[in-house]
Amino acid sequence: MGTMQQSIPRFPRPLALGLRVAPLAPLRLAAGRLMASLTQRRPRLFARLGEHARKTVLIDPTDLPIVFRLSPDPAHPRLEVERDGAVGDYDARIAGPLAALIGLVHGAYDGDALFFSRDLTIEGDTEIVVALRNAIDNEELNLADEGAQLFGPLAGLIAPGLRGASALVGRWTGVALTRAEHETQAHEL
């Protein structure tokens, strides 16, 4: 894994402010479909969590006015999207800029380095956080590919374009939107 030597990009403030009033229904629908797709296509992802699978992790992008509540129970995994003031109960919380959280999924950032630099905050049951991190690392998720799966039978046609667009936006913004960017970034650092 590469180490971060530059600042982590922040989500543009005007867009974040827009999310304060935007309806969450489209994000909630996409989150539900993403979890259904991951459960079907990658059943080991949540099964690897063992005893921790019934715990709840709050994923808090600190530069957005929303939070994600992940309940990775393999029998009924859920990813709920809420306003940041409506967090409810959770066993662990992972907080940091959206770019850092996405970069963790793609292996672009080292979680330990982010934690020790205080770019990432972990509260509560750290065992579930470590188990989740290991499960995600083992699956080598690529969010562009997972997003393409939301289009069902058209996924094969959409995935290459979505990967290309994600890589382009990633280079422009500095956010690792695809796993392939990790390879490029690792060579540049």
For the record, the CATH class of the domain at 13-141 is: Alpha Beta
Low-confidence stretches: 1-5, 181-189
Helical amount = 40-55%
Overall number of strands: 5
Q: What is the overall number of helices?
A: 9
Q: Could you give a short account of the major beta sheet?
A: 5 strands, mixed
Globular, elongated, flat, extended or rod-shaped: what is the shape?
Answer: globular
Q: How far apart are the first and last residues' alpha carbons, in Å?
A: 10 Å
Report the average pLDDT across residues: 85
**CATH-defined architecture of the domain at 13-141:** 2-Layer Sandwich
Task: Note the main attributes of this structure.
single chain, 189 residues, Nonspecific Lipid-transfer Protein, Chain A, 5-stranded mixed beta sheet, 9 helices, 5 strands, globular, disordered N terminus
